[in-house]
Amino acid sequence: MKFIKDILFFEVQTTGYDTDKDSIIQLSAVLLDKDNLLEKNNFNTFIRVSYLDSIITEHAKILHTDYETLRKSPKVYDAIKNFHNKFGRDLLLATHSSNNLWFLKNAYKKAAVAYDYDYHVIQLWTLGYIYTLNYGLNKMPTFQTLLEYFRLKQEKPYNMLEKVRLEAEIFRRIIREV
Amino acid sequence: MNFKRDILLIDTEFSGFDFPKKHDLLQIAAVLLDKKTLKEKKSFNIYVKPTHWKTRDRASMAINKISWEMVWDAPSLKQAIKKFNNAFSHNVIQASYVGYNDKRILLEAYKKGGIKWPFDYHYFDLWGLFYGYLAKKNQLKSKKDFAGFGLEYLIKKLKIKVNPNEMHDALVDCRLEAEVLRRVVKKI
Fold it and tell me: Which residues pair with A14 in a beta bridge?
């Protein structure tokens, strides 16, 4: 197995499902080596999207963190700038579903940071669906389905770093077994 | 193989990436693939009359090879979207070769046409599937290959016959993508 570029799997926690109106409040990523798909770097940040105490408290609940931690977290501009600077652009993005990509692109727009990644993206859901279908799983898979299929355990469903690491593991297993 | 829904493979051609401000959606094509066999059940193809022809991007036009003669009397964007919207059931899995661009352009087109987006979020982005397959088979050798890893590359690898002059017509591309999908699905 040999990929041409390292693969950056990313995952987001958001304030809702509307890619135009809702915002990312946690951004997590793991960089996988192109030769062996092992994790070589990672990124994890909460994002404070409001100055209002009530909103910060509401978002802290979604993230299972405390008010003070989220209040001190970076704003979208700093979070996206850090994310972009940490990994550069010579990589391939990957994520579970297309909506995550829309959220990420919109966050770049809000942060006024140029989104200059390759326009190709690996979408795990497509790969997971076709792989599990051929191995007899006759349903439209969710992330949970893929976890069950590969007997992986998610300890903290609200933790996006854990989630993105599980996505990377699912990807590794599919690629290894194809 | 038995997908839960039929797959609607969509491809678009446009006069540049700055749609709808500066460029136009020029062609929408789709093939509906049977959920059990992946055989084509129905197809759709329409050209769209441009409103920003003077500001078309030369590089995009060189790829899509769409001339003024092909689009000057085509339906308006609103009419084209209405026809596309009525052509298929919406209870499908949408699919595109590189999903983001086609979906973004279609979403904008629906918005501009004043029609509510009728599909749900289930969407196949086929490029990543094909990329993973090629990587596993050690058929990605260099960054040059990566940059050029388009549909042509896959067609050559899988020895699918096509007239090179017909490529980048949206309907032809849809059918080629469908054939690549049929072959790769069997091997994964």
Answer: A24
